[in-house]
Write a structure and sequence with these properties.
Blueprint: H1 2-17, H2 20-26, H3 43-50, E1 55-58, E2 64-72, H4 78-90, H5 96-104, E3 108-116, E4 122-127, H6 135-145
Antiparallel strand pairs: 1-2, 2-3, 3-4
Helix pairs in contact: 2-4, 2-5
Length: about 170
């Protein structure tokens, strides 16, 4: 009887665990866009990308240094979730514990330190900054640009005036 109960319990735990890696891959924290702010930007522009500071320190002359903590490498990823789903199907859920562990260890924390002037403008940015794109990555981005659909623009000077905007003739 106890072997049967143990088997049922292990089976239930296995079934309850299926899908965790998929949910974990679909959840996460969007990475900040570091190009969205620079020296001279407002505090609001920084906090839109980095969130609220984890600590603040007052400096001389009314300056303030804020420390921001954020996660890199754990953005929501539908492709990773889809891959986990198909691996779950192929292995009847047996790979789920391994996939879940992989998802748990996605991403790492980074810190940035920003000094603000008394009028809340960025003076100094230090700490983590993403590395610049490699030449290969730049070439790939440029190659993809040719396939992006450009927005249609209309030139108003070449289109004839419609009859609804023309004024009616006046009678004498």
């Amino acid at each position: 009887m106890s072997n049967k109960l143990t088997s049922v319990l292990i089976g239930f735990i296995g079934l309850a665990n299926v899908g965790c890696s998929i949910a974990m891959a679909l959840n996460g924290h969007q990475e900040p866009i570091f190009d969205a702010f620079e020296v001279g930007s407002s505090r609001k522009q920084v906090e839109i990308q980095l969130g609220t500071p984890v600590s603040s320190k007052m400096l001389e002359e009314g300056k303030k240094e804020d420390t921001y903590k954020y996660e890199i490498g754990n953005s929501p990823n539908g492709g990773r979730a889809t891959l986990n789903f198909y691996i779950d199907l192929a292995t009847i859920g047996l790979a789920e514990p391994i996939l879940s562990l992989i998802e748990v260890f996605q991403g790492h924390d980074e810190y940035s330190y920003i000094v603000y002037s008394p009028d809340d403008r960025v003076m100094v940015i230090s700490g983590y900054r993403p590395p610049p794109p490699s030449p290969e990555m730049k070439a790939a981005i440029e190659a993809q640009e040719q396939y992006k659909k450009k927005p249609a623009t209309s030139d108003l000077s070449t289109t004839p005036a419609s009859s609804s905007t023309a004024s009616p003739p006046t009678s004498p």
